[in-house]
Amino acid sequence: MYYIDRSVICYLFFVCAKIRRIGGEEMNYDKEMNMNNVEFGDMPPQAFLLGLLSAFDNRYQAAADVFFGEITWKQFFAIICINLCKEAPTINELSDIMGSSHQNVKQILLKLEKKGFISMLPDEKDKRKQRIIVTDAARTFLEENDNNGLRSAHIIGRIFHGVSDKDLMTTIATIMKMERNLSEL
Question: Of 100, 121, 166, 173, which cross-links 104 as Cys (Cβ 3.0–4.6 Å)?
Fold first, then answer.
């Protein structure tokens, strides 16, 4: 598991950056970000992107926390990740999928368990492990509050409005390369 100290990203993000050449085009970060109280100076695009991703993550999490009200974005994300697994995951498996520490995921799961949205059951082969399953209460909550994913799909569509499929695929490929590189640190 790997972590980047957010203070380093914040430092890189806010150090400076006025104009940078990207793909032969000039990009004025100050103008593009529409932030009058920040001066980006000559920040390299890599540092700017890391800061931008971190800031976007914070803003997205705050907006998503409001979306459901009863559960947080991280709790909803945990449910999504559990549902993506071919079999009920262990806490360690879920931690790897979510990109978070065992302790953080355990805290998220305890809150979901208290709400009745997940159950943690002993593994049949290794009783030391716990398998996580999503309950009917969580499914009912999501059906009632997300209209079977239609509200989420609408919001996701709004977030990606104006982003071409080509740009989206390039972004995914870039972040996957960054993820692989990060795992090798």
Answer: 100
